[in-house]
Amino acid sequence: MINRSARALILVLWFASPFAAFAETEPEHIDFRPLSDIEKAKAEGLPIFLAANNDGEATNDSIMLTGYVNPKIVAYSKSFYCFLGNPMGHEANWAELGAPQDANSYYARRALSPERCAKFPGMKCQDHKDVWDELTRRGYLPANGGFVCPQHIFLLPDETEIVKDQYYDSAEELIGFFEQTIERARPIVREKMRKLMTDNSRTMLLGLVATLRPIQVEELFGLLVASGDRRNIELVESFANGDATDDVATRTAGIAALAVPGNTAMIAKLEPMLRDRNAVIRGAVLGALIKIGNTDSYEKAISHLKSEADEELAVGFVIEFEAIVKMNPGLIDDYAKITESRSNRVKAMAFIGLWSFPNHRASLDAFKTGADDRDRGVFIAAILGMGCVTDETLKTEAIETLTPLKDGRGPKKEVAELAFARISGEDKEEAYAEARQQIVRLFQPEQPQGGGRRR
Asked: If pLDDT is split at 50, 70 and 90, which confidence band does 26 have?
């Protein structure tokens, strides 16, 4: 019998080793279909994603292990019929084929069977061989070799080519191709859904929604709301609020459909969903309220942001709302209210956002209040904001606030000196700019490689 200490040691070694991956649940991946399903794509009016992926090359393995399981890519792929071509057989253990070690551990736990490809989940090797042959027949791959992989081809339902991309630069690039194709496919899908709506009763539609792809659900819900029929809108509302489904993607599609710009009647339908337990749903509702775009909807969104439990969600919408305020400065008073949030991080990000609007009474009032905050990050963001003021009347008031802080003691002294020097025209611009960058880096969300928010 293994004693307790030995059992603990085994557990430590297990979870510290690469073999712990064997016990993990395989991540969700793109659902690659057999070639015969390409006719279904045409019949259903859905876009097509073709991928060519060969063995023995690092980029091909990288996208298989990371790109094809990227959650956002997987989510977008559900609106497509997806096909993957590879000329090799993987019925034997893939480790014997010289795959990279991380790929070995990822797939080694998969049962080996002639009916299951050991490399590409959910496929038979004959399926991806057939697709490879089809890609060759279509001219995407040369019949005499010399092919370039990976390749990704995005087609409309009528097989109009939208994107043909060789190699693989990043998941973000592939996401962009999916988004581009989805937008081009929407008119085709919309007409299919218009016919579906015409040919079926509301009761029938209630049952059919679960069989539809995300893009189909989005277009159907949009048509139902656009009809103006109260019963159609109530049908969409039943999906949005969770009465008709627990599926988060379907619920968010319903919420998005209810977000009709300028339609204040939708606010009352959406507001109760801000109390949903699921942060994704609350985020969708916040986005919908912002899209409706009137004073009442903005007020509801900001009021919720001040108490939102999910900090990442709240910070993301603070950034999004700042972009809206830049296009509509009349919303600065509303935006400044976010500095009353319960979350110090949300407050700090709101102050950072107000740096873009320093010569506004609401901004200065918020900066002055924030300067008294006990949280170090919050008061630094607020005090630095006063250093941005250039309006002569407001500048005098800001200097009056900064003077006792810079002449005093404690943690506020140094940052107040920088803000005072900046607003007084002293030559400390470099130090002031560095302090701003440090506080932005501390509070803003991490950005994907190669992109990001700059100040």
From this structure: low
